[in-house]
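The freezer alarm interrupted the setup, so I double-checked each line after restarting. Inputs confirmed:
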Amino acid sequence: MIQLRQKSSLFGALLLGVALFGIGCKDKEEAKPSGTGKTGETTDTASRGNTVTGDTIKIGEYGSLTGDNSTFGISTHRGIQLAIEETNAAGGINGKKLELISEDDNSKAEQAKTVVQKLVSNEKVIAVIGEVASSRSIMAAPVCQDAKVPMVSPSSTNPKVTAIGDYIFRVCFTDDFQAVVAAQFAWDQGYKNVAVFTDVKSDYSKAFGELFAKKFKTLGGKVAAEPTYQSGDVDFKAQLATIKGATPDAVLIPGYYTEVGTIARQAREVGLSVPLFGGDGWESDQLIPGAGIALEGCFFTNHFFSHDMTEPHILSFIAAFQKINPGKQPGALDALGYDAAKVIIEALKRAKSLDSVALRDAIAETKDYQGVAGKITLDANRNARKEAVLFKIVGKEFKIFKSYRPEQVGL
Amino acid sequence: MQAFLQTLIYGVETGAIYALIALGYTMVYGVLRLINFAHGDVYMIGAFVGFYACTQWLPFKDLSQHPEAAAVNIALALITLFLSMLLCALLGITIERFAYRPLRNGFRNADAHFWGFVIALPVTAFVGAMSTTKRQGALLFAGVVIGFIMRPVMAHLTKRIKPSSSRLNALITAIGVSLILENGGINVFGADPKFIPDILPKRQFSLLGVEFNSSRLIILIIAAILMAVLRYIVLYTRPGKAMRAISHDIDAAKLMGINTDRVISFTFALGASLAGAAGFMVAAFTNIKVVPLFGLQPGLKAFVAAVLGGAGNIPGAALGGLIMGVVESLVASRYPQWRDAVAFILLIVILLVRPAGLLGKNTAEKV
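Predicted 3D structure, all chains:
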């Protein structure tokens, strides 16, 4: 047997220090949003925005092309690229071609801020498209606001994102709506007692869970249990056993696909067999590989798009998409990326001059634009008022199950 | 009571994995007095080997579509388990050879060709466009040539530079190796999460109201077998005996004619192969996401487990792992946000109360 020979307390303290250093490393990569709720006051020294100078109109994009949520960034990028290429093939805007400058934020909030700074000050882009994850949009939006460069988020749903200032827009609905739809849906399905399992490290997840619980209680439902997890965890069985003990009719998991699959598997393992449901964070082609068959028959709310839809404008979008990406099916994130780019392009056509301040005003006037993921009208808070759909997971497919308009849930 | 029992079972399942990783820490600590922080990342590599074997290298079939392939998959999974262990053992030896041995022994004339290859690697890696075979040939040639050039340099350095026996240097090197593996992993594998598909049949059954999952039981069984094999190797084989001799007194062992470098390599291989097995089993049986930071948290927890049981003590590491798993599971069932914190609270408490660990012998520091 190998025996311990020596050990000094100094050495022990050193080990501890190293252990804590390791924890520090882990925390570094987590999203820690700051500067939320800051309104866009401008000072005298504020920037006057960027102006188009060369032969091309530069549009910036930042997204999670690699890292934890890489499928989010990659899907969105495909959509944006399609919109840019279509416009350039049609001759560009006022004879000028569009140039897309894509930056990768590695799925990290601090990195998002850095790359947007680079886009705005070095590349002098006229508009910025991004991000999917709300935590990262919240980090980068103040940069765009201060520089007076409009930022259009394709699919950040946390209400705080556009509250940062008058240069920040989104072409999707907010969690105020999505969570309410989820609550209404749960109630309509006959679930009376729902457990909510939120990710405490994600702004999106926390807001979704809270708003859901509020609406669900006013409808007459009961929240059975509210345990939490942290994105990056791999063992959820203890919390799931607690949920099982509360015998809910269904469990809401407003998280991202990176954890949802594992949670679903372990839920089945602890013997929790009730339906699980969630939000647009589930949309990824990695959801099913992560979950196996554990999510069969489960639901999630999502943006108004499916490759099963047969409206002509959607069919032509899918055809164009598959010309560039053979064998792939576009998802809601591809569609929203396309729509975000299109809203900017349409606004560029209307803008009085080719600078970012005039562009902002033109984007704000967007009304009844028929996007592939629903009609877009930007309201006074720079959010889009749109329909939401519920997908049911059948095998490896997401099938449209139901849809809700804002009026239907009392908004 | 049932809920408590269930939590206990989950804890034992997690603990078995911690124990497997902790064994690697404790063996290396036993022979070298070195905390090999890169060990958690060897566990990560084991998971990645498993991922690539399951999705690309071996003809596994997804059971949700081909339920008849279960028997073939089980055989392939066993092959993958050995493959993970083998590749991780090689990695362990490489890490020791590359990072720790030069630190321990300093520059040696006999190592001239080793350093020749170390220098040749970046040189040939960045020489223009070249096919892979040509590049390998160039590396081989350059390594040998630079090796001969290094001989007189080595002879000179050996006289000038004394090897460092500082434990701090070795520890910092270990952290460096860990960071290289993690960030290299991000470059090579990508940071996006990967999932091993359903390749193994799973059954769920309950006994006395407690849920059991066949795949987690298999992890427990394989872990137990591997630990038994390890115990046999350490207690009853010649290399095992040599390991114990080195852990008692490395200089005396050298004087008795034990090739200490070779035995240390063997120790690293043994520990790393256990970590590799654990990495593959966790990734394949629980289908959690495989990312380059896969080993960070389990590695740290296993390190705590090794200290808890008594660093350098093999049964202690197994015990420490089990205790860690159970404590963590019990805490997480009530206060999930304290799950990670409790491991390190445990570390502080054990260092204060019983610094030698639960099974470790407390001996005075020789000065």
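Quick read of the result. Chain B has two domains: 2-105+165-353, 107-161.
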